[in-house]
Inverse folding.
């Protein structure tokens, strides 16, 4: 049977994270204003950044601007490169105990001498709005309420926005990081997809790519996956972004002729991460005060 590429192209959805985030912010501003009216203050997010990594500073700056635009008070605690793990933990305990703080974000990656997992796990579950604690991940994996890590939760919200039914799909997550690949797989499994996790060392990756109905690329390597490796009709979510090359983990050349839906890079997954951080922070305050 002849495959009608023109008809297929017309059906291909672009999963526009920027568009969804802009619409979402309108609703989030209303929720934040409602909290200010009922509780007497805005939601409050506190960020911790260790050292002078330029990318981390840029990212935290973007989060600060997004918070201020959308009715969230925010403060960044800039710690020296030489700070100790215990000093970071002491700060987290202080923020945990403050009734004025609704969410805590510790920017990843921390310097190598910092025990990052121990610092993450000090954050109380009620304030873990970035979804980085192992307890939060465990709850998520067991289908118990917890804040999801922002990028995979943002992807789930984006798929829901475009009415993509996940139940029964063969989903392939390429990547196994603690804040993206693993929680992404758990979320898809909770949505009744059949999930396979692969990574850069997977031997039969090309075969898995050809079988997958949904692919989430989160391996962290520029253009690691070629669009020609995918089966026709697949749903592609590219969670990677490499600013020096302005590309993701997938070579998107010709993707419109192959995928039934895909996230552009940039403008797909990226805007959803910060939007979901704000979504989680507002939700944390609403749960605290039962609003």
């Amino acid at each position: 049977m002849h495959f009608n590429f023109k008809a297929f192209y017309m059906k291909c959805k672009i999963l526009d994270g920027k568009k969804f985030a802009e619409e979402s912010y309108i609703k989030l501003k209303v929720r934040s204003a409602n909290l200010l009216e009922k509780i007497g203050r805005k939601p409050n997010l506190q960020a911790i950044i260790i050292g002078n990594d330029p990318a981390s500073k840029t990212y935290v700056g973007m989060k600060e601007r997004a918070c201020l635009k959308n009715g969230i008070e925010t403060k960044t605690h800039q710690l020296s490169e030489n700070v100790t793990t215990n000093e970071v933990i002491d700060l987290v305990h202080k923020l945990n105990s403050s009734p004025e703080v609704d969410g805590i974000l510790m920017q990843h990656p921390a310097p190598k001498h910092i025990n990052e997992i121990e610092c993450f796990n000090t954050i109380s579950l009620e304030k873990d709005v970035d979804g980085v604690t192992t307890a939060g991940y465990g709850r998520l994996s067991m289908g118990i309420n917890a804040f999801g890590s922002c990028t995979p939760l943002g992807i789930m919200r984006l798929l829901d926005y475009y009415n993509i039914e996940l139940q029964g799909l063969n989903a392939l997550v390429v990547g196994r990081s603690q804040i993206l690949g693993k929680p992404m797989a758990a979320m898809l499994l909770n949505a009744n997809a059949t999930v396979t996790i692969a990574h850069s060392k997977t031997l039969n990756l090309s075969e898995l790519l050809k079988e997958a109905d949904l692919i989430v690329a989160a391996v962290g390597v520029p253009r690691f996956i070629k669009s020609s490796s995918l089966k026709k009709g697949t749903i592609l979510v590219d969670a990677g972004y490499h600013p020096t090359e302005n590309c993701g983990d997938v070579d998107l050349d010709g993707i419109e002729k192959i995928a039934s839906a895909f996230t552009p890079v940039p403008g797909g997954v990226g805007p959803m991460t910060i939007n979901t951080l704000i979504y989680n922070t507002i939700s944390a305050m609403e749960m605290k005060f039962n609003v």
In short: The longest strand covers residues 44-50.
